[in-house]
Amino acid sequence: xxxxxxxxxxxxxxxxxxxxxxxxxxxxxxxxxxxxxxxxxxxxxxxxxxxxxxxxxxxxxxxxxxxxxxxxxxxxxxxxxxxxxxxxxxxxxxxxxxxxxxxxxxxxxxxxxxxxxxxxxxxxxxxxxxxxxxxxxxxxxxxxxxxxxxxxxxxxxxxxxxxxxxxxxxxxxxxxxxxxxxxxxxxxxxxxxxxxxxxxxxxxxxxxxx
Length: 210
What we know:
Elements: H1 7-28, H2 34-65, E1 69-74, H3 76-86, E2 96-101, H4 107-128, H5 131-137, H6 148-173, H7 181-188, H8 190-209
Antiparallel strand pairs: 1-2
Helix pairs in contact: 1-2, 1-3, 2-4, 2-6, 4-6, 4-7, 4-8, 5-6, 6-8, 7-8
């Protein structure tokens, strides 16, 4: 199945990706050193940003598989709020959502569309725990300094941020009420809800222990 998108959706995804990456950069990097800030932004874009984009694309792909029109739309005020909360020491990330139109979706189909996003973050959290994926990004940036230990530190930073933040994103989105994915999953299947939630908790625990 070919992924259907539009120029408008691509713009919304890029704006949201950059804003969320900036918010987490502010959260992680409090110094004003340009090099440190730039590298933290890069690490955030490759981890938090990637997790966000793939989460939304997972919703979109499953929705389109069920014959729905679906595109992501950013919420400018919430993006601004995410950046402002970062200065307070936390990030409230609700950058937007995939808009889905299909009046014939069943409860099961809606639940599967919803759970696709958090499970994508769970998979990313586990993946970022592996040194292999973290080191994959490092060679491209080894020119920044000559010290080889810097490359290892940067790779480790990507692995740590990627595993922890994606674990949090998965668990946060499994909240079973309001506009969160967890509500639709819970309504569809208590077993699926328990599996996705426990997977998110496990990923988050491992990301803090390893």
